[in-house]
Structures are given as C-alpha cells and as structure tokens.
Amino acid sequence: MSLSLQPHRYALGVTLRRLALQPFSSLANVMVIALALAIPLLVASTLLSLQPVARQLSTDPELTVFTKVGSTTDVARNMAQRIERDYKSEVLRVRVITREEALAALKRNPSYADVLAVLPGNPLPDAIIVTLRGADLARRSPELADTWRKWDGVDMVQLDSAWVQRMEALLRFGNTALGLLAAVVAVSVLAAVFNTVRMQALSQRDEITAARLVGATESFVRRPFLYLGAFTCAIAAGVAIAASALAMGPLNGALADLAKSYGVEFFIQLPPPLWLLGFVLVVTLLGAFSARWSVTRTTRF
Amino acid sequence: MIEFQHVFKSYGRGVNALTDVNFRVAAGEFLFVSGPSGAGKSTLLKLIGGLDTPSRGVVQVNGQDVGKLPPRARPYLRRAIGVILQDAHLLNDRSAFENVLLPLIVTGHSPAQATSRARAAIDKVGLSGKESLRPEALSGGDQQRLAIARAIVNRPAILIADEPTANLDHDSAVRIVEVFRDFNRVGVTTLIATHDQALIAAYANRVLHVDAGQVTERKP
Questions:
Q1: 3-state DSSP call for residue B166?
Q2: Rounded to whole angstroms, how far apart are CA atoms A72 and B48?
Q3: Could A214 and B106 be called an inter-chain contact, meaning their C-beta atoms sit closer than 8 Å?
C-alpha cells in the first residue's frame, strides 16, 4: 500500500471500529437520517414521474370561440381575421374549424356515430381555436374570453387549457415545496451528524490527545470523524433509496385506481441511476461537511 | 538544543505559571526538573514539547522558536520530541503493540517498517511478551514503559517526561529511570520532572528547580 494512503487506511479502520463498537447507536443514527431522506426522495420521485405526463400535454392556453348556430362560416372567418389583426401580439395561431369539419371529425369516432345518425342536421357551430402567447397568460386568457364573448355572433368562449396550466402551477408549487423540504432535511441531517460526531469526539478525547502528543496533524485527528459522518450519510442514503423503492409498491397500487378514474396511466418510479448516484454523493458530502464542522468545534482542547 | 529566554507564561488574569525563565540545555544532557506540585514544572515541559506557547519570551527547541511556529507546523516539531505526560493517555481499547504503532502511523511509515520499529521499541523498554495486552491489564510500571516505548518509537532527539514515576514504588521508579538513562546514553536529550529527591540524588547531573514560576539551577 502506498505510504500516502496509510493514514487513510488507519482512519478507515478507526471509523469502522467506532461504528462496530456501538452497533445499535450507529444503526439508530442511520435509520433516523434515512427516514428523513426518504421523504424528499419520494416527493422528488413523484414530481419527476409527473414531468413526462405534463410534458405530453399542450401547455399553450387555447381559447375556443363558438359562433352562434345558424350563422355562416364567413362570420367565423371574419372573426378569425379580426382576432389575428387586433390581437397580433397575444396570438400565436388562429384556426377555423367549420361545422362540417367538426361533424366529420365526430363521425370518425364510432362512439358518436349512432347519435349523429339520428340527428336531422348538423347541430354544431363553427369554431375558432386561438392559441395564445406572451407573458401573464393566466390573467390575460380570461380577460380575452370575456371581451370576445361580447362580440356579435359569438355564442360562447371556452378556455381549454386551464387545467393544464393548473397542473403546471401545481408542479411548480411541488418543485418549490421540494426545495424547501430538501433544505429542511439537509439541516436535520447536518444536525444529526453534528451531534453524532460531537458525542464520538468527546468520548475519544484520550485518543485525540494521544495522537496530538505523538505529532498528529489536525487533519489526521479529524479524518476518522469525517469518514464517520460520510459513511453514516452514505449508508443512510442507500437505506432511504431502498425504503423508497419498497414504498412504491403500495403507493403505485393505490395510485393506479386514481389514475384510471382520470383515464390516464401513471405510476411513481425512482429517478434514474445517475440521479440517485448524485443524491448519494450530495448526502455523503453533507455528512462529511457536518462532521468536519463538528469535530473542529469539539476538539479544541 | 533547548533554550528559554525571558519566558513568561500566564493563564487568565494574574495566574503566572512561569516568570522570566532563562536556561539552556545542550544536546545529549540528562536533567531533572524538580519542585513542588503546582510550581510550573508541567508548564515548562509543555512549552518544550510544543504543547503550549509562551505568553512572552522565546522558547527555542531544535532551533525552532516554539512561540512563532504556526499551529500547522507544531505537530512536526512534536515528532522530534518524545513526550510522556503524568496521565499517559494510553489507548485502552488497543493492545500495547497498537499503542506503540500509533506514532508510526501518524508519521506515515509502511506497515512492515512500523511493525519492526514498534517491536524494537517494546523490546527496548522490556515489554516483550506483553504486546497483545491492553494497557489496563499492565502494571503501573509497565504502563509507564509502554508510554516510553510510544514516545521513543519515532527516535526523537528529545525526551521529556512529567512525573513518570509518581505512582510507582521506589524499585519500579528506579527501573523506569534506568530506561530513560539507556536512551540518554545513545544521545537522546532527556528531561524528567519529578519531586522524588531520592531519584534526583541517585541520577541527576543537573537539576532545574521550579518554584512559584521561577526556575533556578540546583546542585544535585
């Protein structure tokens, strides 16, 4: 073994011996940290699983303007031109779907074929689908809908993608909440590791003094405690991943019925392996940082 | 090798452990530091060992000014000095052998080299056959021998011991001082703090007497 690795090998041995000397206490620390980590991990898994679903849906708000039944298609075409002209900066696209096109589309769906067959004529109105753009659409969309609703020849205006926007807003809220939760858990992990290392350092006073007497540097003295913090957190992160994976079974079972009721297929899954590796690394570094902070403060004697 | 120039050491307000201390110790000397309890002997040894810094004045050890050494450099000074404190700070969860191994691990010796040097140190202090015992299983005298083995295993130029015979009977104390004498014979500068006048009378070439923070030379 290389000479430069000797002190690390020693520190590793000391760390493992300290963990083994107090197996129940070490296990309790790991479990407390693992449970704290499992909560944001589950939330993150849910949000990451939701993202592809949200991405598949159009998030550009669309307003559908229905003309009065009986009015000619020219009314709809004129209205579309007016919208394009007067609201140029707020409109991305305007499309007219004539009542004939709408009926033909409905007829292609076998579920409606029987109903449409018994109707005397075409009961559908012409529709103008307006895709909006620009900032503050959540506020602007209902305003535009109100304005256009008052126009002659307009029967009703429908805001189609409000629920998608709500879902987007919900995801944004979820991400912000996850950030805050992660911060709270990070502080809890810092506190747990800080206290564990502090207790260990106090109980190892003799060993620290002996090491200093024989010329140990502060890095040498602190290294086993850094390893202790990093090890505890790395193991805890692994346990948190395993616990989250186990929890997904019953959670997905319950979620399947809910998703089915909305006509979608959705299940939570753990983030990809690289993401999980990053999670373990960040938690390990957090443990080492907390341990360093604690041992530096505790061994000033 | 060791030089004190107008050294003062005080703790807090008005507690003067050492006051205007001046002396020199040449390489290879063997001397005792005597004086009543609380006189400042331990403080004197701690300053030499780089375990503390003077409040004022200059403490030179191995050509280095202890007071001016940055904290990061002090451990490297300590490696050249074997220190045996009144409380030996032996590690009771390790074997005698592992206790002696510690300084060699600190200085980054290879396992083979460390093993051979630790065995040699244990042999020199007369603890062969007791390597696997924990310190608490050793007698008071053997614990001191173990502390000496740990202090000398890195072959220091200076050996300082604070009351190493305090809890020993006279015969054991004599045997411990003999161990120190053996190291001094091969050139290790040795300072032993004690208030055992019989030992001083039997072994001292030179005595530094500490009383109320003042250091004076005394005839043995």
A1: coil
A2: 106
A3: yes
Query: Is B8 part of a structural domain of the chain?
Result: no
* B interface residues, A as partner, C-beta within 8 Å: 49, 51, 71-72, 75-79, 83, 85, 89-93, 99, 102-103, 105-111, 150-151, 154
Q: Please check whether residues A155 and A172 belong to one and the same domain.
A: no
Are the beta carbons of A10 and B105 separated by less than 8 Å?
A: yes
- The β-bridge relationship of strands B158-162 and B189-193 is parallel
Give per-residue pLDDT as tens, B61-88: 988 999 899 988 999 999 999 999 888 8
Q: Name all contacts of B35-42 with Cβ < 8 Å and 24+ positions apart.
A: B35/B195, B35/B209, B35/B210, B35/B211, B36/B195, B36/B211, B37/B195, B39/B210, B39/B211, B39/B212, B39/B213, B40/B9, B40/B210, B40/B212, B40/B213, B40/B215, B41/B162, B41/B163, B41/B193, B41/B210, B42/B85, B42/B86, B42/B162, B42/B193
In a domain, B63, yes or no: no
How many domains does chain B fold into? 1
Q: Which of A195, A206, A204, A178 is nearest to A232 (CA)?
A: A195
pLDDT value, residue B193: 93
- Indicate whether B129 belongs to any domain: yes
The answer to whether position B50 is within a domain reads: yes
What gap in Å lies between CA A21 and CA A27, rounded to an integer?
11
Rounded Cα distance between B100 and B121, Å, is 8
Which residues on adjacent β-strands are paired with residue A91? A132
CATH of the domain at B148: 3.40.50.300
CA distance B215 to chain A (A): 25
Is the Cβ–Cβ distance between A219 and A17 less than 8 Å? Answer: no
Residues near A192 by beta carbon (within 8 Å), at least 6 away in sequence: A29, A32, A33, A36
CB contact under 8 A, A215 and B93: no
- The reported pTM is 0.70
Distance CA B114, CA B105 (A): 7
For residue A33 the two structure tokens come to 């940290």
Question: Which residues of chain A, if any, have pLDDT below 70?
Answer: 1-4, 53-60, 135, 137-138, 160-165, 261-264, 301
Number of structural domains chain A divides into: 2
Residues A246 and A266 in one domain: yes
A 183-222 residues inside an 8 A Cβ radius of B: 206-207, 209-218, 220
Q: What is the ipTM of this complex?
A: 0.84
How distant, in Å, are the alpha carbons of A178, A248, A252 from that of A45? 11, 10, 12
CATH of the domain at A94: 3.30.70.3040
Q: Under a CB-based contact definition with an 8 Å cutoff, are residues B145 and B179 in contact?
A: yes
One domain for residues A42 and A170: yes
pLDDT tens-place string over residues A215-245: 999 999 999 999 999 999 999 999 999 999 9
Give the residue numbers spanning the domain of A131. Answer: 62-160
